[in-house]
């Protein structure tokens, strides 16, 4: 019988498998990306917010909210650093430059066009940027605004302080389980006692835009264009070229 139950510590490896098995094409073709994915979009949720994580046979929906910034070092120490070496520090910005950032996408040298440029389909994720993202809760959880004064404020700063990641294996899709998992997630966020503000936000890779309609049906709404030209990551950025972002309002308990 299929049913939804709370996450258990014994589900750790199963959650990693599900995350890798359901990655969009842009993130699944590079072995290093597949290895890193659960450490960016799964394991910190189950460690830092297990009461709001749910399993459906082999499915996962998990939120984390702004207080996780204080708890994030425990995730780095107990999980992330045991599998992924930390990135080297970036050079400090000078008085005339903004904070240095590594590009999330780098060209695939085998598919460059004659002009030397590459569309998103001809680029691959930058492992160094992925590792830096995993080690930086400020960007991963949208806890601070961009150093670029012209960039839009992060969704966390705008009031959506919880974030959600849901993976559902194909055998369980289009059967109503995604909606039920999100309903369970919303109920657990309300009961968490955390300051989740206006509700939750999610990030979607542009080549996974087909899921937007599903999220709209369960109560999310778009806050960035649905056909951007690039994406910074599945759970990062503030809009435009950073990817597709949606929010759901969750009334306070």
From TrEMBL:
SUPFAM superfamilies given in the database record: Acyl-CoA N-acyltransferases (Nat) (SSF55729)
One protein family per Pfam: Acetyltransf_1
Source domain of life: Eukaryota
N-acetyltransferase domain sequence ranges: 66-251
InterPro entries (UniProt xref): Acyl_CoA_acyltransferase, GNAT_dom
Sequence segments annotated as region (Disordered): 86-123
Name of the featured protein: Acyl-CoA N-acyltransferase
Organism: Apiospora phragmitis
